[in-house]
Amino acid sequence: MAYILGVDIGTSGTKTVIFDESGTALASATYEYPLYTPQNGYAEQDPEDWWRAAVNGISDVISESGVSASEIKGIGLSGQMHGLVMLDAECKVIRKSIIWCDQRTSKEVVEITEKVGHDKLIEITANPAITGFTAAKIMWVKNNEPQNFERCRHILLPKDYIRFMLTGEFATEVSDASGMQLLDIPKRQWSDEVLEKLGIDKSLLAKVYESPEITGKVTKQVAAMTGLAEGTPVVGGAGDNAAAAVGTGVVEDGKAFTTIGSSGVVFVHTSDISIDKKGRVHTFCCAVPGCWHVMGVTQSAGLSLKWFRDNLCWSEMETAMNMGVDPYFLTDKAAMEVPIGANRLLYMPYLNGERTPHLDPNARGAFIGLSTMHKKRDMIRAVMEGVSYSLRDCVEVMREMRINVSDMMACGGGGTSPLWRQMLADLYGCPVKTTQNKEGPALGVALLAAVGTGIYSSVPEACKAVIKADKIQEPVAENSEKYEKVYELYRRLYPRMQQTFAELAQL
């Protein structure tokens, strides 16, 4: 039996899982670490914390599983995207990593757009300039910490720093590199034009691989620290969403997944590159060689329901604690008592601005149609429906781009709700499924390692062998018809509120 490791370097912690070749998890370990916010809007982490978490996690799962180091055939790495790791000439970390959710780079976004050009940027990098992407972070350091920029000799992404520590190799892969805004997405290589216009030396960047390719091997020193065998191959791996796609079997045309976590993501696989010239969705290279994915983002998806729960559902939270159940179990029950349309109540889920299809940091949440007849359960239902309408907006953009969306997986905390999955199935007009295996990104990159080391011949083959559907929600035609009428009203809200949001932001 062959075994494979998946290491997922997340924002809250690093999760390490050891799998057998059939995808069965034998042992798992998670180590958490802090997030630093030195100023409002800033978000940083210490790469050394990631490394300690990875070392401890790898050691734990090898020990707990009892698997011999020689039987571990490969390691795959997943990680939070867009984070900036800068190393000096001695390969030491220069400053804390500025991570994906940091918002300090608004001036750099304007600078990048002016230097490269809005249309040219979308043509090459498939996306407009965004504060979260790595390029804006590099430019911020260049503008505000010139001494650190001068010291910099290597620029890495979070998971690629862990790769360097494991193997001594400077490498990245196409899916994570896509989120730096320095990659030519159609050509799957660094863009000389973008780098030149931004004044970033190409030698600072790591070599780009396809996700299943072997990028290096575990060093003798790391083997002694972790219990791994020296020379264990480490493959390219993937950014977190691309890894989750492999972990849910979304690796062929027509297949997609929806994640309802704090944010919401609709992710669709495509073998033909498709770029939205309006920049409403992101097009990135995916973990399947020669293919891409298109991704829409709802900023405050599960966060909308969490906000409502934390502020207005104290009694439900207390009842849930006494019953020993999740509070969301009770909010689901309450929402199920309310008909489609939430008794003529609409919710706009833009608590912290929006990405798809309205790239607007000023957008805010709103209940529309409140009256004295409405109860708390109506508002819960409206929140869940509003998030679902926003995710349907993402799907509509993709269908406008002529991308096939016909087979949907559901992930994240919200994906565990049968009611939410049924809403999505009815609104998307296609089945919404869950998978038996819940390891997501860690499983995805472990499968990439299985492909890179020859256990499977291709990513689709690996997924067909390992990923099995669990629960399936079929669309109900009668429900779809009712939702469609409400959705049409929902779509009209943002254009009518856009100017009001802008003026509100100036108060």
Explain this structure to me?
The chain is an alpha+beta fold and 507 residues long. It folds into three domains: 3-242, 2-Layer Sandwich (Nucleotidyltransferase, domain 5); 249-298 and 403-475, Nucleotidyltransferase, domain 5, CATH 3.30.420; 302-394 and 478-505, ATPase, nucleotide binding domain (Nucleotidyltransferase, domain 5, 2-Layer Sandwich). The strands form eight sheets. Strands 18-19-17-16-22-23-24 form a seven-stranded mixed sheet. Strands 3-2-1-5-15 form a five-stranded mixed sheet, sandwiched between helices. β16 and β17 (264-270) form a beta hairpin. The longest helix is centred in the last third of the chain and has 29 residues, at 477-505. The chain is globular and about 70 Å long. It starts with a strand and ends with a helix.
Measured as a percent range, the helix fraction is 40-55%
CATH-defined fold name of the largest domain: Nucleotidyltransferase, domain 5
Radius of gyration, in Å, reads 22 Å
Shape: globular
Question: CATH homologous superfamily of the largest domain?
Answer: ATPase, nucleotide binding domain
The overall pLDDT, averaged over residues, is 96
Task: Please state the second-level CATH architecture of the largest domain.
Answer: 2-Layer Sandwich
Q: How would you write the strand order of the largest sheet?
A: 18-19-17-16-22-23-24
Major sheet summary line: 7 strands, mixed
Roughly how many Å apart are the termini? 64 Å
- For the secondary structure, the number of strands is 24
Name the structural class.
alpha+beta
- Total DSSP helices: 18
CATH class of the largest domain, named: Alpha Beta
Strand content: 15-25%
Q: How many structural domains can be distinguished in the coordinates?
A: 3
Poorly predicted segments: none
